[in-house]
Specification:
The chain has 157 residues and is mostly helical. The chain has a domain of 65 residues. The protein has eight helices and two strands. The chain has a two-stranded antiparallel ribbon. Helix 1 runs parallel beside helix 7 and helix 3 packs across helix 4. The chain is globular, with a radius of gyration of 15 Å. The N and C termini lie close together (11 Å). The relative contact order is 0.14.
Length: 157
């Protein structure tokens, strides 16, 4: 599951300092061209900060606070601890929080027994856990699952 989340949400998770500055610049450029917020750039660490302390607002002040909090989290916690907290706090559906609950609800087994495909399907819904389930046959879930599996394969996972 860790590998699926890294390639699906934050490919530089283990290398970055809580913020992926390249993605921030790409997001800023896309938003500037569109004259509205159209692209996110949150790392796993920033998403954890948002889930722990902030709202889902995308306003600049909230993003600044997420960024500062991500630096603090990276300073005080190991990457493995950040990932553990992230996987235990994120939402995977209405009232389904954490990977253990998601694994049991969707696949009827503990998270430690997830297959590579099941992990990729769960990671695929992270951007919109209220709009999709890992069991849906939607094009969005299928597309994201395939991308995650290809990226995992490319990294030898």
């Amino acid at each position: 599951m860790v590998h699926a989340v890294v390639v699906g949400e934050d490919g530089t998770f283990y290398e970055n300092d809580g913020v992926d500055w390249y993605e921030v610049q790409q997001s800023f450029d896309a938003d500037w061209r569109a004259k509205k917020i159209v692209r996110g750039s949150s790392t796993i660490t920033m998403q954890l900060a948002k889930n722990l302390w902030f709202s889902t607002s995308r306003d600049p002040l909230t993003k600044l606070n997420e960024t500062l909090s991500a630096f603090m989290l990276t300073h005080y916690l190991t990457k493995n601890r950040i990932m553990e907290l992230y996987l235990n706090y994120i939402e995977f559906g209405r009232g389904i929080f954490g990977i253990q609950a998601a694994s049991r609800v969707y696949f009827g087994e503990p998270a430690s027994q997830l297959t590579r495909d099941q992990a990729a399907r769960l990671a695929a819904i992270i951007p919109d856990p209220l709009g999709f389930t890992p069991l849906s046959g939607s094009r969005f879930v299928s597309y994201r699952t395939n991308i995650i599996l290809v990226r995992m394969g490319a990294r030898g996972w």
